[in-house]
Design a protein that fits this description.
By secondary structure, the protein is mainly α. The chain has helices at residues 3-25, 31-53, 60-87, 93-104, 108-120, 122-145, 155-163, 166-180, 186-196, 199-211, 222-246, 250-260, 267-274, 279-303. It has one domain (3-298): Na+/H+ antiporter like fold. Helix 5 (108-120) crosses helix 10 (199-211).
Length: 305
């Protein structure tokens, strides 16, 4: 994809974010509506978009790239866990747990598929889905542990929730269909394709509803700026170095860098409010990193070709 097409994609996504913000400001989407859209996206639309990406011709090279990409993702998540133990010791507890969560959990679950599909097509969505497996596991295990004391966590329940998460189930089923090359009836494939095609607009609307809740004058401070430096520049640079070290092909390498270079996960604001942390600070981290990523993601796309 050339830079002009990339900026066009970014502009399209940003326009949809603004529409989502406008819908929230006008009251068309309220808080209940935002939760419904989020659930719809996670439970149905993203899984269909992921499964749709597997409806391609199987290639052993794709399978090998998926294995290396999965290894890179595991190593990056482990690296983020180590960083979280070292970087945020001097922060107040309510902000520390937010920064730890946002470092571990980018917004790849929402933004990842539209970006991957727009740049690399269906194979990009497949690679993104594989790369996000460790991230989803980390989100619902280590990520939640930052807000909930370990003593109160039902680890068996967490493991079950992770293993049966709709987005992961879509990966399991999709990879099985891809490897086995099982012919599916057009009723199934077309239904999945139509639902999956809603992914970009729906996810951008959700990001826009988050943007609408923040006053522009209170967005940027020293902590959010330093976090954006880590989230949008240092971590994707580390992913680029790791990918080159592992010998990733250009497309999976680009996916690894872009998925790690996404802004802070929007669930940070939800968890912060639910568990009485600094919810306004969490929202600022999400919004500022989302806006800044509109500048950094094209740069990373250009660097990885």
């Amino acid at each position: 994809m050339d830079l002009l097409s990339l900026f066009s994609l970014q502009g399209t996504l940003f326009a949809m974010i603004l529409i989502g913000a406008w819908l929230k400001k006008r009251g068309v989407i309220d808080e209940d509506g935002k939760r419904c859209l989020t659930d719809l996206c996670i439970q149905i639309v993203i899984p269909c978009n992921t499964f749709k990406s597997c409806l391609i011709q199987f290639d052993m090279g794709i399978f090998q790239s998926c294995a290396l990409l999965l290894l890179a993702s595991v190593l990056m998540e482990l690296g983020c866990l180590v960083l979280n133990r070292l970087l945020f010791r001097g922060y107040p507890p309510q902000r520390r747990r937010i920064l730890q969560y946002c470092t571990l959990v980018p917004m790849s679950s929402f933004l990842g598929n539209p970006i991957a599909e727009g740049i690399y097509g269906q194979v990009g969505v497949l690679y993104a889905a594989v790369f996000l497996i460790p991230l989803r596991i980390a989100t619902w295990s280590a990520g939640t542990s930052y807000f909930v004391a370990d003593a109160h966590m039902d680890r068996k329940k967490v493991l079950k929730n992770v293993a049966t998460h709709p987005c992961l189930v879509a990966v399991y089923l999709g990879l099985f269909v891809l490897v086995a090359q099982i012919p599916l009836p057009s009723l199934v494939t077309e239904t999945v394709r139509y639902i999956g095609s809603c992914n970009a607009a729906l996810t951008m609307f959700i990001v826009g509803t988050i943007l609408a809740d923040v006053e522009p004058t209170s967005l940027l401070d020293r902590h959010t700026a330093s976090f954006c430096l880590l989230r949008l520049i240092l971590l994707p640079a580390a992913a680029l170095g790791l990918g080159l070290l592992l010998g990733l092909e250009p497309v999976p390498l680009g996916i690894a860098v872009l998925m790690i270079g996404m802004p802070a996960g929007s669930t940070a604001a939800i968890f912060a409010a639910q568990y009485h942390s600094d919810a306004p600070f969490a929202t600022r981290c999400v919004i500022v990193s989302t806006l800044a990523s509109m500048l950094t993601l094209p740069v990373w796309c250009w660097l990885v070709g």
